[in-house]
Amino acid sequence: MNKFENPLYSIYPRLYCSGTILVNDVPMVNWYGDDTKDGGYGGDTVTNTAILQSRKYKVVGKMLPRSGEKALTAENAYLSLDFLVCEAKSCKNSRIQFHPKIESPWDGLSENINYPSFEIQTEINVELPFELNGWQNSVDLLRIDKDQLFKKVIATYRQIYAIIAEHNAIKFLEISKDKEELQEKAFFMDEQRKQEVRQSIAHLFGEKLQLKPFVETEMKMEIFGYGKLVRLIKADGTSPFQFIPKNEEEQGPIELDVKLHIKKKGNILTII
Hints:
The protein is α+β, with helices and mostly antiparallel strands. It is about 20% helix and about 30% strand. It has 2 domains: about 5-125; about 140-270. The chain has helices at about 90-95, 145-165, 170-175, 175-185, 190-205, and strands at about 5-15, 20-25, 25-30, 40, 45, 55-65, 80-85, 95-105, 120-125, 220-225, 230-235, 240-245, 255, 260, 270. The relative contact order is 0.16.
């Protein structure tokens, strides 16, 4: 394997159906809702916040029908995953493939492809110059009564929703400290990059976009990260936190993906 001083590992999906890409049981890509009715999703996604130390990790691509459809067929569904790594300070010039591509085992000429869902998976090996605590040593949420956990998650999400609805970027950054710290270390951020991330959040909140309503009855709870992480999603798989863009006809909702953990026994749920 090529040695990088500060490696950024990423996945590049080409997704032509609804779906989720999980790395180390953490959803890194989610594509659901009305956007899936046409076209596809593609883009490089850095996975260092899911891979917190050097070892092997399972990667799963979950395929589901497009919005409004009931099945995956050779004509309407496809997923491929490329696995890339680069040097953090010179990513554009150093990116290489570190693991063979995987893809759904059919093409437009295949016959009798009709599935309600489908998964592709592989195992990747990564080498990192750090071992981050992140969320991997957090409380096992599977040991908490599911109904009680759901109530706590709902309450936490309502508090976060109120902060976002007020467009309070300072407060949002404050309650996202665990996530910010993990990203800064995992992505090898220098001070300039740290400031750019904070400014991008401030800019988004500064647009004063309307937030879609938070409807508790639409929410379902997902526990992942092998029991260490939890989030709410809507029935259609999208985030409960969706800004309505100014040009709705040209752009879909702007989603904020919020994952929670309990850092230590006795702590409250916080963003990670």
